[in-house]
Amino acid sequence: MSDTPVKQQSTAAFYGQAVASFAVAMTATAIGIYRLDANAWVRGFLAIAVLYLVTSAFTLAKVIRDRQEAGEIVSRVDQARMEELLTAHDPYRKTPDPRQQSR
What residue stretches are annotated with the YiaAB two helix domain (predicted)? Predict the structure, then answer.
């Protein structure tokens, strides 16, 4: 069985850029809703809708990530089983003749 290290998918710079982008988008949306020429109920509704959209996006991303990781784990287990079978198999081992065993 091979010991393959788990690779990190993203760099620190990419992570920082993603966090900064999220912060700018949320700040701009909050300022836009605050400065909107509408009554408080409309602004409140839009703020709740944005928060619901953000939490739904995070949940969807987590579900997709979890499903992908589960598929990778199953693939690794299947690969380990196949490697175990291949290492245990000796193509030069003499197998008993079934006709001689029945006599």
Answer: 14-66
Whether 100 and 21 have beta carbons less than 8 Å apart is answered as no
Q: Quick one: three-class SS letters along the chain?
A: CCCCCCCCCCCHHHHHHHHHHHHHHHHHHHHHHHCCCCCHHHHHHHHHHHHHHHHHHHHHHHHHHHHHHHHHHHHHHHHHHHHHHHHHCCCCCCCCCHHHHCC
pLDDT tens-digit series, residues 48-74: 999 999 999 999 999 988 888 877 776
Q: Which sign, positive or negative, has the C-alpha torsion 52, 27, 29, 9?
A: negative
Q: How far is CA 47 from CA 21, 42, 57, 96, in A?
A: 19, 9, 15, 76
Reported pTM: 0.57
